[in-house]
């Protein structure tokens, strides 16, 4: 038990410091984007940057259970939808404050994750993947049936959210830096979780659930807790996306979107937290750049992903490790 729950600080500190260092570099680069956009007089960079930050939150949240718990959820985009529709539904009742909308999204996400996770976690492997996909599609079709909020056509928002009574999000730059602040705060939270006793037990369950159960831990409870936390964090990304697009639709929670989140995690580096942030940036930027070249950009993107997996199985993180820029996985 001691090798999992009380690992020497000296063996864990480099990995923790490596994650923080890599993320700090990414956050600095993100912070410089708006000034660069202003200098180039091209606000589009801020818009795509906000999308990147939102998806970075979702990918990082998925990595929390995929990378550290080997739980491949193919319905994780449902929580994006809960966040987006929390903005739409609450604003229709006059609740426009983002703080309240995030809290509402997290409550709904926690309840959904608690119920579906309690069922899904009783399965393993491909069965877990398929049952999370099924629950995600159930949520998808539920929101399609909500005709009051546009159904399949979606629902336009009349205005962006407020923050404690201020209109800071009405500016694209304000929304961008709010998204960046949320990403940084949630990264620190995830990093703290992974480095805690809870995180060490959770990772130990990934390595050998039978052994962890034999020494007195309940794999189910730890996995379910992590599943709920991951869903709640993902819902924050949905709140940001709704404000960025000023539009919500069931497309936010389709299984294709869940697949894209998994691609972002794999592209950046599974089990690294900072890697999926870079993976989200790489995936969305490649989509934009390749889309300019050809309408068949998914073919080129797929080829790039295959080459990345073949030559750097640990994604972007693996490339950085090769040149000594990033630390290895714990």
Shape: globular
Major beta sheet summary = 2 strands, antiparallel
Which regions have little confidence, pLDDT < 50, spanning 5+ residues?
1-11
Structural class: mainly alpha
Distance between the termini: 17 Å
Q: Total strand count, please?
A: 2
List the total number of helices: 14
> What's the helical proportion of residues?
over 70%
- Alpha-carbon Rg, integer: 19 Å
Strand content: under 5%
Number of domains: 1
The succession of helices and strands, N to C, reads: HHHHHHEHHHHEHHHH
Spatially, the strands of the biggest sheet line up as 1-2
Kindly state the mean pLDDT as a whole number? 89
Fold and architecture overview:
The protein has 330 residues and is mostly helical. It has one domain. It is 75% helix and 1% strand. It contains 14 helices and two strands. The protein has helices spanning 2-5, 9-40, 44-69, 77-92, 98-120, 125-144, 172-195, 197-207, 209-214, 219-245, 255-268, 274-293, 297-311, 315-322; strands at residues 155-156, 247-248. It has a two-stranded antiparallel sheet with strand order 1-2. Helix 3 packs across helix 11, helix 4 crosses helix 10 and helix 5 runs antiparallel to helix 10. The chain is globular and about 55 Å long. The two termini are 17 Å apart. 44% of the residues are buried.
Describe the secondary-structure layout.
Blueprint: H1 2-5, H2 9-40, H3 44-69, H4 77-92, H5 98-120, H6 125-144, E1 155-156, H7 172-195, H8 197-207, H9 209-214, H10 219-245, E2 247-248, H11 255-268, H12 274-293, H13 297-311, H14 315-322
Antiparallel strand pairs: 1-2
């Amino acid at each position: 038990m001691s090798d999992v729950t009380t690992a020497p600080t000296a063996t864990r500190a480099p990995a923790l410091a490596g994650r923080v260092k890599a993320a700090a570099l990414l956050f600095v680069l993100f912070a410089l984007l708006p000034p660069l956009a202003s200098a180039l007089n091209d606000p589009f960079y801020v818009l795509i940057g906000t999308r990147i930050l939102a998806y970075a939150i979702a990918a990082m949240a998925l990595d929390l259970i995929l990378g550290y718990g080997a739980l491949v959820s193919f319905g994780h985009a449902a929580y994006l939808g809960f966040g987006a529709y929390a903005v739409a539904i609450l604003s229709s009742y006059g609740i426009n404050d983002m703080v309240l909308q995030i809290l509402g999204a997290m409550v709904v996400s926690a309840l959904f994750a608690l119920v579906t996770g309690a069922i899904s976690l009783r399965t393993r492997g491909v069965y877990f993947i398929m049952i999370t996909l099924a629950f995600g599609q159930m949520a998808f079709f539920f929101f399609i049936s909500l005709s009051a909020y546009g159904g399949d056509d979606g629902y336009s928002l009349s205005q962006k959210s407020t923050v404690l009574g201020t209109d800071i999000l009405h500016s694209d730059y304000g929304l961008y830096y709010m998204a960046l602040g949320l990403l940084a705060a949630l990264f620190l939270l995830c990093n703290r979780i992974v480095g805690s006793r809870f995180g060490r037990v959770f990772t130990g369950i990934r390595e050998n659930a039978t052994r962890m159960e034999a020494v007195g831990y309940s794999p189910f409870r730890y996995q379910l807790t992590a599943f709920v936390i991951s869903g709640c964090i993902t819902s924050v990304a949905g709140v940001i996306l709704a404000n960025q697009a000023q539009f919500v639709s069931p497309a936010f929670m389709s299984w294709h979107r869940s697949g894209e989140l998994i691609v972002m995690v794999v592209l950046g580096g599974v089990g690294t937290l900072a890697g999926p942030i870079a993976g989200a940036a790489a995936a969305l930027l490649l989509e934009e750049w390749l889309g300019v070249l050809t309408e068949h950009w998914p073919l080129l993107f797929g080829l790039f992903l295959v080459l990345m997996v073949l030559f750097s199985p640990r994604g972007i993180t693996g490339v950085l490790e090769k040149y000594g820029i990033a630390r290895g996985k714990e």
